[in-house]
Design a protein that fits this description.
The structure holds 2 protein chains of 2 kinds. Chain A is an alpha+beta fold. Chain A has 3 domains: 110 residues, Aldehyde Oxidoreductase, domain 4 (2-Layer Sandwich), CATH 3.30.365.10; 169 residues, Aldehyde oxidase/xanthine dehydrogenase, a/b hammerhead (Aldehyde Oxidoreductase, domain 3); 225 residues, Aldehyde oxidase/xanthine dehydrogenase, molybdopterin binding domain (Aldehyde Oxidoreductase, domain 4, 2-Layer Sandwich), CATH 3.30.365.10. Helices cover 29% and strands 24% of the residues of chain A. In chain A, the strands form 7 sheets. In chain A, strands 3-5-1-12-9-10-11 form a 7-stranded mixed beta sheet. Chain A has a 5-stranded mixed beta sheet with strand order 7-15-14-13-8, sandwiched between helices. The N and C termini of chain A lie far apart (62 Å). By secondary structure, chain B is an alpha+beta fold. Chain B has 2 domains: 72 residues, Beta-grasp domain (Ubiquitin-like (UB roll)); 72 residues, Orthogonal Bundle (DNA polymerase, domain 1), CATH 1.10.150. Helices cover 35% and strands 15% of the residues of chain B. Chain B contains 5 helices and 5 strands. A 5-stranded mixed beta sheet of chain B has the order 2-1-5-3-4, covered by helices on one side. In chain B, a hairpin with a 2-residue loop joins strand 3 and strand 4. The radius of gyration of chain B is 15 Å and the shape is elongated. Classes of the chains: A alpha+beta, B alpha+beta. At the A-B interface, helix 1 and helix 16 of A face helix 2, helix 3, helix 4 and helix 5 of B. Bound molecules: FE2/S2 (inorganic) cluster (2 copies). One FE2/S2 (inorganic) cluster sits at the interface of chains B and A. Chain A: This is CO/xanthine dehydrogenase Mo-binding subunit. Chain A: GO terms for molecular function: iron ion binding; oxidoreductase activity. Chain A: It holds the Pfam family MoCoBD_2. Chain A: InterPro entries: Ald_Oxase/Xan_DH_a/b, Ald_Oxase/Xan_DH_a/b_sf, Ald_Oxase/xanthine_DH-like, AldOxase/xan_DH_MoCoBD1, AldOxase/xan_DH_MoCoBD2, AldOxase/xan_DH_Mopterin-bd_sf. Chain A: Keywords: Molybdenum, Oxidoreductase.
Chain lengths: 713, 150
């Protein structure tokens, strides 16, 4: 069947969603199903001295650490987080036990009668305290990770430099706020546990549950249910609650359903790491950035979770899209007695790109030169080396993309007009950001950890089912993968089947994270389809392929040297704002974007990712304020934590430019995360343009702006 | 206590607790198209129509709805299909969790305001959160459906 791969098709999952018949986890009913609610720590750091339970009515029970038959540690990267607190608690909201039973109201009443006696320990509530901790939460230095990357010769760069500029940048928490809260159901039947849930990574949950129960792999099955958004928030956390419902099902021998309320979800699940990033640049008389020293500190929260890899991604992006040949960057993920920071679309990159984009702008302003010229004269080109010494093998279209965005947004005309407007007190501004995102796991993760496998099964009627562990969570993965198979096999799309994964049926093709589903898994689907095509005449065929690390690439994971990624996607965003002179409230008047994601597998799906990602990025930069006090999240209700509404965003004008990636299906590269990364710096730069101030911190809050403006900067 | 609800044109007598919200009652009766994302009437996901007007069922006491007409997606298949077509075409649906509530709100808007312009549409839909689509696809779909240019 001949069709252009980029041309949009109808998504198969959408009609059921519109009709309200798609089944999310809350729509599953099992016979005799029980419900669970979580008893949580109210202390940031304490020893549990004693727990007094009320007398439980018949049919109700407590599930806690004593009910974990295997290892009471969640396997994420390390094993530090317990399924149920084991004598100590390290953050407010840490799970201690489940109360399980038939009636939700009875469960609530039991919960309210449980008394936990704590012996408080002085908590570590900031990264500063964490770096000087007398009683560390983790290890000797209280850092889950402490890495340094370096390249070139910093000493000579410093000697040759004529100017030095140093700045510090800060970013806040961000909550994924997938509209469907976390939820799972555990079922125990004939010696086997099945877990149903709203998840991104079926095999992560499977591995965690196997160890939690001490079960052989064949006794644990994970089924993904239609998932109402993830954005990284359903990458690691489901492993924790998956183990909990598994223990509960095993204990009660009944299905047990645990679904979070929104406020609970906001308060206790993982979020984007707050960051503090210090950058010091050494610049020569021709305004070339010769060298850079960086120091990245992430607030990891109470357990390590995914922090080590988030930190790596932030470090590898620390120089942004600029060719800085000499560089030393230290990164630390600091333990604090706060909710665990985790994965959120961008995974360390939004923090790093905010810092470097502001930094470069501030250097130019400090030196009194044109920021665009300065940035473009330092920009990466094909053949340059990354922060880890990896080669940029493909053409980098950034200069063309910048030109295009400038045209689309009439940036130059606007800059001029805004200058005039400012004279009469109207505060408009426009900002532009440049950024990239590396596709797939960092470093050798795809080769050494994931080793993704993809299977295709063709039946005698010519239907082909794609068997992968990657999930459709709204992003369009099901349609994208089906299109890749159909196009390769030259059969109609209707012949290709994609179902929500069930680990009893699908091989481990890796998690649905790191923008890897199209570029890595899609490529495997394409390879499997090619193999299948050769055997098309057979009645029933099954083919399986496994990921192979592409030739010519290199990664040393001990030294963090080589190709941190095998492909890069690129973006340029412009944001126009208008600032109210009295309240300092900011209105967004326009957004323009150009992305190079190689070839688009489906333009409508791509546009959806672009729009959604940019709006999340704008929320991150502006209204999505989340702070903690004494270890407690202050915005822990849906009424306090606000995400953008349709009123907050103007139409987003976006275009694609294409430098295809030979290693991706039909030349496609990574997309999902890239779209979020550039919005925050473009927004902040637009405000700088409007007000003539320096912004070093997001979210940009009107009250802070007022202070800055009043201080007359 | 007993209340009477006319759900999608069918009268039903239902036993409810005094503090029970409409969301729980309707889901208990099998209308599982209704989803809940916040529980505090701040997202629009749980929207149903009460005598044609959109209300957040998560925060609406069931007893207050006694004797009224309730519409859910299950009850307006044809209209849903008509609007749904544009939602498919414009990529207005990703994870879909917000879709039923959104669609019902569009139907209410259509009945309530004549010839809305694009700003009017945005205003009306501002209470319906969507975390996936950035609202662009949704707004394009509604504008096309309602024949609003610009
Ligand atoms: S769930 Fe009712 S308004 Fe959000
Ligand atoms: S489509 Fe996911 S929240 Fe709207």
């Amino acid at each position: 069947m001949e069709f252009n791969i980029s041309q949009s098709v109808r998504r198969e999952d959408v009609p059921d969603k519109i009709a309200g018949i798609a089944k999310y986890i809350g729509d599953y009913k099992f016979k005799d199903m029980l419900y669970a609610r979580t008893l949580r720590s109210t202390e940031a750091r304490a020893i549990i001295k004693n727990i007094v339970f009320p007398k439980l009515p018949d049919g109700y029970c407590i599930v806690d650490k004593g009910d974990v038959p295997g290892r009471n540690r969640v396997k994420i990267i390390d094993y530090d987080m317990p399924f149920f607190a084991d004598g100590v608690v390290n953050y407010i909201g840490e799970p201690i036990a489940l109360v399980v039973g038939k009636d939700k109201r009875v469960i609530e009443s039991i919960l309210s009668q449980i008394r936990v006696e704590y012996q408080r320990i002085e908590p570590i509530l900031s990264v500063e305290d964490g770096l000087n901790a007398e009683k560390p939460i983790f290890g000797d230095n209280n850092c889950f990770s402490d890495y340094t990357i370096s390249k070139g010769d910093m000493v000579s760069a410093k000697r040759r430099a004529k100017f030095v500029y140093e700045g510090e940048y800060e970013t806040g928490y961000q909550e994924q706020f997938y509209l469907e809260p976390q939820g799972m159901i555990g079922v125990y039947e004939e010696g086997k546990v099945s877990i149903y849930g709203s998840i991104q990574c079926p095999y992560y949950v499977k591995n965690a549950v196997e160890e939690c129960l001490g079960f052989e792999p064949y006794r644990v099955r994970i089924v993904q249910t239609t998932t109402g958004g993830g954005f990284g928030g359903k990458e690691d956390y489901p492993s924790l609650i998956g183990g909990q419902v598994a223990c509960a099902a095993l204990k009660t021998k009944k299905p047990v359903c645990l679904i979070f309320e929104r406020n609970e979800d906001i308060e206790v699940t993982t979020k984007r790491h707050p960051s503090k990033i210090r950058l010091k640049s050494y610049i020569d008389e021709n305004y070339r950035v010769l060298g850079m020293e960086g120091d990245i500190v992430l607030d990891a929260g109470a357990y390590s979770g995914l922090s080590s890899v988030v930190l790596q991604r932030a470090m590898f992006a620390s120089a942004g899209v600029y060719n800085i040949e000499n560089l030393v960057v230290r990164g630390r993920a600091v333990a604090t007695n706060k909710v665990v920071s985790g994965a959120f679309r961008g995974f360390g990159a939004p923090q790093a790109f905010f810092a470097i984009e502001m930094h470069m702008e501030h250097i130019a302003r400090e030196l009194g030169i044109d920021p665009f010229e300065f940035k473009l004269s330092n920009i990466l080109r094909q053949g340059d080396r990354s922060t880890t010494g990896g080669l940029y093998r493909d053409r980098i279209l950034l200069p063309e993309m910048v030109n295009r965005v400038i045209k689309m947004s009439s940036l130059e005309e606007k800059k001029k007009a805004f200058k005039e407007k400012r004279k009469i007190g109207k505060l408009n501004g426009i900002g532009l950001s440049m950024f990239f995102h590396g596709g797939g796991f960092t470093g050798s993760g795809e080769r050494d950890h994931i080793k993704g496998r993809v299977r295709l099964v063709k039946d005698d009627k010519g239907y082909v089912e794609i068997l992968v562990s990657n999930v459709e969570m709204g992003q369009g993965a099901g349609t994208t993968l089906r299109k890749i198979a159909a196009k390769t096999l030259e059969v109609p799309l209707s012949k290709i089947i994609f179902n929500n994964p069930d680990t009893d049926r699908v091989p481990d093709s890796g998690p649905t994270v790191a923008s890897r589903t199209t570029v890595i898994v899609g490529k495997l689907v394409q390879e499997a389809s090619e193999k299948l095509k050769e055997r098309w005449s057979e009645d029933r065929v099954e083919v399986e392929v496994q990921y192979k690390y592409p030739e010519g690439f290199y990664w040393d994971n001990d030294r963090f040297e080589g190709d941190a990624y095998t492909s890069y996607s690129w973006g340029v965003n412009a944001v126009e704002v208008e600032v109210d002179p009295t309240t300092c409230e900011v209105k967004i008047n326009g957004v323009w974007a150009v992305f190079d994601i190689g070839s688009a597998i489906d333009e409508r799906i791509v546009k959806g990712q672009i729009d959604g990602g940019i709006v999340q990025g704008l929320g991150y930069a502006s209204i999505e304020v989340m702070e903690d006090r004494s270890g407690k999240i202050m915005q822990r209700k849906s009424t306090d934590y606000t995400i953008p509404t349709s009123m907050d965003v103007p139409e987003i004008k976006s275009e694609l430019m294409c430098e295809p990636y030979g290693g991706g299906p039909f030349g496609a590269k990574a997309l999902g995360e890239l779209t979020l990364v550039g919005a925050a710096p473009a927004y902040a730069l637009a405000i700088e343009d409007a007000l003539g101030v320096k912004i070093n911190k997001i979210p940009v809050r009107p009250e802070h702006l007022m202070e800055v403006v009043q201080n007359g900067k | 206590m007993k209340i009477n609800l006319k759900i999608n044109n069918i009268n039903r007598d239902i036993d409810v607790e005094p503090g029970e919200v409409l969301y729980d009652v309707l889901r208990r009766c099998g209308f599982t198209s209704i989803k809940k994302a916040c529980g505090t009437s701040s997202c629009g996901v749980c929207t149903v129509l009460l005598d044609g007007m959109p209300v957040p069922s998560c925060s609406y006491l069931a007893v207050k709805a006694d004797g009224h007409n309730i519409t859910t997606i299950e009850g307006i298949k044809e209209e849903a299909d008509r609007i749904g077509k544009f939602m498919v075409e414009e990529g207005a649906v990703q994870c879909g969790f917000c879709s039923p509530g959104f669609l019902l709100t569009v139907i209410a808007m259509e009945r309530e305001i004549e010839n809305p312009d694009s700003q009017g549409i945005k205003n009306y839909l501002a209470g319906n959160l969507c975390r996936c689509s950035g609202y662009e696809g949704q707004l394009r779909a509604v504008k096309k459906y309602m024949g609003v240019s610009e």
